[in-house]
Amino acid sequence: MAIRIPPTLGLTNPGPSNAPKITFAAKDTDVLEWNGDLLAVGVTEKDVVKDDNNNFTNLLLKKLDAVLGGLLAEASSEEDFSGKSGQAIVLRVSGLCFKRVGLFGVGQSAYKAAAFVGLGEAIAAAAQASRAVSLAVALAFSADLSDESKPDIASSIAIGIVNGIFDDYILFCLSVIYFLGQLAAEVLNIARNYSDVLSARIFNEDEIIEMKMGSYLGVTAAATANPPKFIHLCYKPPSGSVSAKLGLVGKGITFDSGGYNLKAGSGSNIETMKNDMGGAGTIFGAAKAIAEIKPLGVEIHFVVAACENMISATGMRPSDIVTAANGKTIEVNNTDAEGRLCLADALLYTCKQGVAKIIDLATLTGACITALGPSVAGAFTPNEELASEVLSAAERSGEKLWRLPIEESYWDSMKSGVADMLNTGPSQGGAITAALFLKQFVDENVQWMHLDIAGPVWNTKKSVATGFGVSTLVEWVLKNAS
Questions:
Q1: Which of 212, 263, 294, 479 is catalytic?
Q2: Which pLDDT tens digit goes with each residue over 205-238?
Q3: What is the residue-wise DSSP string for 421-482?
Q4: pTM of this prediction?
Q5: Which residues make beta-bridge pairs with 132?
Q6: Taking every annotated instance into account, which residue ranges of this chain make up the domain Cytosol aminopeptidase (predicted)?
Q7: Where are the alpha helices (DSSP H) in 261-383?
Q8: What's the topology of domain 36-166?
Q9: Which of 229, 340, 357, 439 is catalytic?
Q10: Does 340 qualify as catalytic in the annotation?
């Protein structure tokens, strides 16, 4: 007789979200008439050029400095402020509608979303330092911007401000989740709040067995007191027909011990392994945003095979063979490469929903962090059209992706003598062989991209999730909507 330990025994449930309430508005007003705490002005290096009398030549800065008696020009000269990216100068002023004014550099030019996200983050830091409750953002170079670009620029600045004020704002409620039951409960809560466009189904362990998801079950079924939860959240537009069906698949390992290939030693980062559900957090964050926007003409399937990767006497062992839902067999030569085993069955399931395109997101490999560092995600796809779509969406969102090759010749290193494949290859090219593994479980008629977000999904210095990928996914969905 199997006994399950109550999953909440001795542990604390997550507390209520303390995400700030922020209101954004676009206004066409004279900056000198704005009433609030901090007036933030974004400037390029060209904007802060002065004439022979040490006066700004930029019209907005010239107007602003006139009412300040030349204080801005004087301070920028004294502090060697040249408008370079990352530079900032904030002054306390009196006799005006606003209490403080600041100049924030964006470099030689600012035409990429990443620059505006960075501007927003810098402004947020200054607002927090000065305890500002209200702030306004103006761009000294706004006359150089097209009307078409301004909504995207405003959106990027807003994203940066939210990131800067509260790094984990988008995914706070998900990043602190300890247990599978709570992850599923959060998804059900999102579906209830947006029941006009979202529906959710949570499959239990018996149903997962019926679906023959042996690759997924090998990770979780016998090794943890917390049963697996296979989550399917579906978005359907509030009206009109559907012209595009999309799939978003996230890795949902709520804690990763490594299994019998235990994460050991000071560099293993086992203490941060709640973030191994970062892919799941991202797609559910995107689901919530999409449910707010309600794009037409597009149906989206959000799929997560959620579980823990734990150790027990009955847990999966190195050398075990598992069978995925499509009948392919996998020799497990490393129990710490568990995410791809769960994703295999999740990808197969998503293909069956009739989707034309799939993006999967996963904190999958340390190899990708080694290759691209902590701020850039790796993108893998054999499809040029999808690559163009997603990389363009990332460009608009300001999130950093870099396309890496799917080198088919590396698949030879993944062959097994006793099964169809191994679950890991050699240490070299580990991010590539992981992508090749996932590719085996995607229908050839489905366009597919794998995003390895192991680096940028987590802010190591602050020990918080970043919500990386949400903005890119939303942008991608909107471009596929009618």
A1: 263
A2: 999 999 999 999 999 867 777 889 999 999 999 9
A3: EES---STTHHHHHHHHHHTTS-TTSEEEEEE-TTTTEETTTTEE--TTHHHHHHHHHHH--
A4: 0.79
A5: none
A6: 334-341
A7: 278-293, 339-351, 366-372
A8: Leucine Aminopeptidase, subunit E; domain 1 (3.40.220)
A9: 340
A10: yes
